[in-house]
């Protein structure tokens, strides 16, 4: 989707991540999906821009530290 949607989605994800103390790590693959994995549908491209990724990382880094993170 458009970059504005991606940023909004990642901001909401940050909020959800913050509500779940059992989450200790994140992994993101900035790439298009495997060709033909979706059959004849257009292969989704999950990539985001560097600025969107950096914004997401900044928000993640600004989350309150969890008790065991000291």
Q: How would you describe this protein?
A:
With 70 residues, this protein is an all-alpha fold. 40% of the residues lie in helices and 0% in strands. The longest helix is centred in the first third of the chain and has 16 residues, at 3-18. The chain is elongated, with a radius of gyration of 15 Å.
Topology, please?
Blueprint: H1 3-18, H2 50-61
What is the structure about, briefly put?
The protein is an all-alpha fold.
What's the gyration radius in Å?
15 Å
Along the chain, the helix and strand elements come as: HH
Shape: elongated
Distance between the termini: 37 Å
Number of strands: 0
Our estimate of the beta-strand percent is: under 5%
Helix content: 40-55%
How many H/I helical runs? 2
Q: Mean pLDDT, rounded to whole units? A: 86
Largest sheet: none
């Amino acid at each position: 989707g458009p970059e504005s949607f991606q940023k909004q989605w990642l901001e909401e994800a940050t909020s959800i991540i913050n509500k779940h103390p059992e989450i200790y790590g994140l992994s993101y693959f900035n790439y298009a999906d495997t060709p033909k994995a979706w059959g004849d549908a257009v292969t989704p491209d999950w990539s985001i821009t560097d600025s969107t990724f950096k914004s997401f990382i900044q928000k993640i880094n600004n989350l309150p530290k969890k008790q065991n993170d000291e």
